[in-house]
Amino acid sequence: MKKILVSTALLAGVLSYAGGFRVSLQGVKQLAMAHTSAHAEDASVAFFNPAGMSFIPSKLSIVAGGFGASNKVTFQNLNTLQSTETDNPMGTPIYAAITYRPMEKLSVGFSFSTPFGSTIEWPNDWEGKEMVQKLELKSFYFQPMVSYKFNDWLAFGASYIYARGNVNWDKAVTQFGGQLNLDSKASGHGYGFGFYMRPDPKLDVSIAYRSPVDMKAKDGTATFKFPSASIYPLLGLDPSTGTDSFSATLPLVEEYTIGLTYKITPKWLVSADFNYHGWSRYSKLTLDFATAPVGNQADPTVSVSPKNFRNSKTVRLGTQYAFTNMIYGRLGAYYDESPYGDDNFIAETPSFNTYVVTGGLGFKLKQFGVDIAGGYAMPQARNVNNKALGFYGQAKATAFYLGLGLSYNPF
């Protein structure tokens, strides 16, 4: 059986979360402050930097939260002036984490998160239907981790990443007037590590790295649907099922983060982050089917689409003010850079240079904490000029998200 190399388009989220398809929604408190990372008040720091566990004031900390994310993408053909709009369902990223300090210098923890995933849905008959009609992803990261505190101001932490996910992708096969569905499950492994420093009681510094994860998909199913049963034998397919088998390797990109939090006064702190994403490893998308000759290469079973992603960065700035010992106000803003130019814009992973404003409130009730947050994204319109796909026009988008998080620090 031939292999299908489905690059990270199959793990695509949408523009509402981050440049490319990174879902930057792993902490409600963090989101309210522009999703900055140098916050070690509870177990939510574990996803961002495992070393931060060593500075959580509570010996045991438990957090959980979720988001509702809404987005809409509009594409207009400037020649025909025809406009097409996505009908995406509400996205619901979730996270949870627990940390425990069995010894003074040693902390252990576990983080569960959804750093990649969402659904984008275009009309079945739109002009880009051969690229995508609907793309749905569910992905989950499971991260056991450990942190060691060398002294009062420095800790090192590391995590193991086990990733699970599944993809469901619909696209048209106009050559035969049909449709193709790709459905597969995938798993992969990676790691993360970081240093967390508190050289001064007023200053926290977080330096973290999260590795690439190559997702391995096995026993995937490619299902073809055609209006006439006579087409299936021409493609080497069983007319009763219309299916072809495939395997896949799905590479996800690495991420580097530097974060700072400074307490200007006992009640007021300011945070900043710089993220660097290694998107350049996503250069093309190759589909290699076992028997179906629906490709665009000398071997008719192979379809290759250039993607030409480039490394990108995000800059974040947030703040928190304690109105009382129980009520906290938070604000933030960040700029997220798209990992590709206008000449490489693709409909299955629409990405924009985006400004985002965020805000929220936090409430502490002894050992319990409740956090709410919201964000409004302002993606910058793009002049689509993808010559490789013959895809031209203008793309616009809107997005917003809300989050609710809970924390419990019993002792």
From TrEMBL:
It is a multi-pass membrane protein. InterPro entries: OMPP1/FadL/TodX. It is found in: Cell outer membrane. Keywords: Cell outer membrane, Membrane, Signal, Transmembrane, Transmembrane beta strand. It holds the Pfam family Toluene_X. Its main location: membrane. Belongs to the OmpP1/FadL family. This is Outer membrane protein transport protein. It comes from Chryseobacterium ginsengisoli.
